[in-house]
Write a structure and sequence with these properties.
Structural class: alpha/beta
Mean pLDDT: 86
Largest sheet: 5 strands, mixed
Number of strands: 9
Distance between the termini: 26 Å
Helix content: 25-40%
Order of helices and strands: EEHEHHEHEHEEEEH
Number of helices: 6
Low-confidence stretches: 158-170
Strand order of the largest sheet: 5-4-3-8-9
Strand content: 15-25%
Shape: globular
Radius of gyration: 15 Å
C-alpha cells in the first residue's frame, strides 16, 4: 500500500464516476475552491450515514466558505445515487470500485478488511492542508474540516504580504 498522503503533500489526481455516472476529475474541482475529500467505508451503514448527514447539514456553510464536499467509497454509482436520494445529500459521491484511489491516498483499513474513514482538506493549489483519520469520531471529521476551510478562506482574502494565520501543525 502507498504511504499515506499527509499535510503538505500534493493530493493525487484522479477521475471517478459520480452518483449520476458523470466522470469527476479532482483537478477540475480545484482552483476556484477548496475540496473536502472524505473516504468512508460503505453507504447505508450507521456510521457512514451519520457522517454523510453531518456533511449534508453543514453543506451550506462549506459552500459559503468556498469549499466543495466530495465523498468516496467503493460502492457503485447506482448505490451512491440511492444513498444520496434517501438522505437528500447535496454533494458529490464518487465510486472507487476496487479501491484504486483509496490506495493512492494510503487510506488504511481496519482489521485488514474494513475500509477506513479519512477526511482530507485540499487547498486550491492541490496541497493537502488537513488530514483526519477516525472510524468513530464522525463529528470531528466535519468540524475540523470546516475549521480548516474557514482558515484557508481567510488566508485567500488576505492582502499580499500579510502572513497566514494557518498553521500546518493545527
Amino acid at each position: 500500500m502507498a504511504r499515506g498522503i499527509g499535510v503538505g503533500d500534493q493530493a493525487p489526481d484522479f477521475t471517478l464516476p459520480s452518483q449520476s455516472g458523470e466522470p469527476i476529475r479532482l483537478s477540475d474541482r480545484l482552483g476556484e475552491q477548496v475540496v473536502v475529500l472524505y473516504f468512508y467505508p460503505r453507504d447505508n451503514t450507521p456510521g457512514c450515514t451519520a457522517e454523510a448527514c453531518a456533511f449534508r447539514d453543514s453543506h451550506e456553510v462549506f459552500s459559503e466558505a468556498g469549499a466543495e464536499v466530495i465523498g468516496v467509497s467503493s460502492d457503485s454509482a447506482d448505490r451512491h445515487a440511492a444513498f444520496a436520494g434517501r438522505y437528500d445529500l447535496p454533494f458529490t459521491l464518487l465510486s472507487d470500485a476496487g479501491g484504486r484511489v483509496r490506495k493512492s491516498y494510503g487510506v488504511p483499513t481496519v482489521l485488514g478488511v474494513l475500509p477506513g474513514r479519512v477526511t482530507y482538506v485540499i487547498d486550491r493549489q492541490g496541497t493537502v492542508r488537513h488530514v483526519f483519520n477516525s472510524m468513530t469520531n464522525i463529528g470531528q471529521h466535519v468540524g475540523d474540516a470546516l475549521t480548516v476551510v474557514r482558515q484557508l478562506q481567510g488566508d485567500a482574502e488576505l492582502p499580499a504580504g500579510r502572513p497566514s494565520r494557518y498553521s500546518p501543525d493545527h
